[in-house]
Write a structure and sequence with these properties.
Elements (H helix, E strand, L loop, with lengths): L10 H8 L8 E6 L6 H19 L7 E5 L14 E7 L5 H18 L8 E7 L6 E2 L2 E2 L3
Parallel strand pairs: 1-2, 3-4
Antiparallel strand pairs: 1-3, 5-6
Length: 143
């Protein structure tokens, strides 16, 4: 028999996990208190991040989804300086070494694109989904 892992009950983590995005093949959702200077800068961030992640993950860009919510009221480390909370999800290609690479790409691009956002004010979570738990085009990837 396999032993069950013991997990600690953490209401903050539970609340964050409850709010995870529902689209995930691969998908990056960013919530930040920072903002873009123009709509063009926002569009450039989205399209560049899509290409960067497609290359890093090794999946077709046609399946990459990027969403960003800006100007969100946030407090991190007791201050309201610019901060971001990110979630990257995928079917496969999530793991210790891969996540290090993704974290660097995401932080580098966010800090270059959003004025005042520093890498040490960005949290990133990673989720590896089973094919049956991922829907697209009216079916799951297990279909």
């Amino acid at each position: 028999k396999k032993k069950k892992k013991k997990t600690r009950n953490n209401s903050v983590v539970s609340a964050f996990l409850y709010a995870l995005p529902t689209y995930t093949m691969p998908a990056l959702e960013v919530t930040t208190s920072a903002s873009f200077t123009t709509k063009e800068a926002e569009a450039a961030f989205l399209t560049t991040m899509s290409k960067l992640l497609a290359d890093a993950i090794g999946k077709p860009e046609a399946y990459i989804m990027i969403a960003i919510k800006t100007d969100v009221a946030m407090c991190f480390g007791g201050t309201t300086e610019p901060a971001a909370m990110c979630h990257l999800s995928s079917i496969g290609k999530i793991g210790v070494e891969e996540n290090k690479k993704y974290a660097k790409i995401i932080c580098d691009h966010l800090t270059a694109s959003l004025q005042g956002l520093l890498a040490n004010r960005i949290y990133i979570t990673f989720t590896d989904y089973e094919r049956a738990n991922f829907g697209f085009d009216g079916k799951t990837f297990a279909s």
